[in-house]
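Below is how a single chain appears once it has passed through the pipeline. First comes the sequence as given, then the structure the pipeline wrote out for it. We keep one example in the README because the format questions we get most often are answered faster by looking than by reading.
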Amino acid sequence: MNERARKDPQEEGQRKLLDKIAELSQQLEKFNIAEYLEQLNNPRRYLMVNFMGGLFRGFGIALGMTILGAFVLFILQRLVVLNLPLIGDFIAELVRIVLTYL
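Resulting structure:
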């Protein structure tokens, strides 16, 4: 009986260790570590993927800022139409300057 009691904590420890290893394996699969390591071993592919990612991020930022800027100009033009005393003159001058440089 004592012999079995001594094995149980050891078996329990092994079971916990196996569970932790299985959990770690699942997390590694989730993060695609194998694909990442494969990419690091191929520098040409690594550079190309990062270059394309940077190119598309830059394009997205430029497109987003263009749309946001157009929206802001649209709102400013509408505020000028309202002819608010101080704000209207300031915004009219600002819109005129922006349209001059577009």
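The two ends are 89 Å apart (CA to CA).

See the next section for the split statistics.
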